[in-house]
Write a structure and sequence with these properties.
Rossmann fold; alpha/beta; eight-stranded mixed β-sheet; 7 helices
C-alpha cells in the first residue's frame, strides 16, 4: 500500500516548493526523485506512469513540481537566474528527502528541463553517481548537460523522440558509445513522447516506455 503527502520544502529564496511524496507502507528507505519539465508536470501521462512504475518496483518517490511555466516571476528572469533558481530548488528537495526524511536515493529521473537537474546532481554529488538515472527527452544539445552526461552517466536509460527539436542522432550515437547508456529513440515521437495526431500510437509508445522502465528498474 502506498500513501502520499506533501513535504515542506523551501526552495529558491525560501519559496515553498510543490511536491508529492509517495511512501510505501513497508517503511522502505529507498527513494527516487523525479524532476518534471518546464511545462510538463508529474501528473501528465509520461511522468505519471514513470512514477507509478518506480513505485511498483518497491521504491518511494518524491515528485517535484516547481511549476515554472505558470510563474511569471520565473519566466521574466535571465537564463542565469532561472538556472540558479532551478539548482536551488533541486538542492532543497535533495536536502529534505535525505536529511529530514532519511531516505536513500536509488534513482533519479528527469523530463526535459528536469534532466538539467540530473546533470547538476551528478556533477556536484559524487555519492549519487552510482544511482540509476532515467533521462526522458533530455536537452542533449545543451553543451554543459552533454558534458555532464558523457562524464557521469553509468546505470542509465534515455528515451527521446526523433521528432523532438532537441534530438540529434550524432549526439545519441556519441552518448551510446561513451557511456553505459541504454538509449531508445522513438521514431515518430515529439517532445512529449507522443505521436502527433494519433492517440492509439501514442498509447503504444507509452506502453513501450513503461515496459523498458520496468526492465531497467528490475
Amino acid at each position: 500500500m502506498v500513501s502520499w503527502d506533501q513535504l515542506t520544502i523551501k526552495g529558491y529564496n525560501g519559496r515553498p516548493l510543490k511536491n508529492t511524496f509517495f511512501r510505501h507502507s513497508t517503511d522502505t528507505q529507498k527513494v527516487a526523485i523525479v524532476f518534471p519539465g518546464l511545462a510538463y508536470n508529474s501528473k501528465m501521462p509520461l511522468l505519471h506512469y514513470t512514477i507509478n512504475t518506480i513505485i511498483d518496483s518497491g521504491v518511494n518517490v518524491l515528485a517535484i513540481d516547481y511549476d515554472y511555466s505558470n510563474n511569471p516571476e520565473f519566466l521574466k528572469q535571465s537564463q542565469r537566474t532561472q538556472s540558479d533558481w532551478l539548482i536551488e530548488d533541486v538542492e532543497a528537495g535533495l536536502k529534505v528527502i535525505t536529511e529530514e526524511e532519511k531516505q536513500e536515493i536509488v534513482c533519479l529521473a528527469g523530463k526535459s528541463l528536469g534532466t538539467l537537474a540530473l546533470g547538476h546532481l551528478l556533477e556536484t554529488h559524487k555519492d549519487l553517481r552510482d544511482t540509476k538515472t532515467i533521462w526522458l527527452t533530455p536537452l542533449i544539445k545543451n553543451p554543459e548537460l552533454l558534458e555532464q552526461m558523457l562524464a557521469y552517466m553509468k546505470d542509465a536509460i534515455l528515451v527521446i523522440g526523433a521528432k523532438d527539436s532537441h534530438y540529434d542522432s550524432d549526439i545519441i550515437d556519441r552518448l551510446n558509445a561513451t557511456t553505459q547508456l541504454g538509449g531508445i529513440v522513438i521514431e515518430e515521437a515529439n517532445h512529449s513522447l507522443e505521436i502527433e495526431g494519433d492517440v492509439t500510437k501514442s498509447l503504444r509508445v507509452l506502453m513501450q516506455i513503461v515496459s523498458v522502465l520496468q526492465q531497467f528498474l528490475t
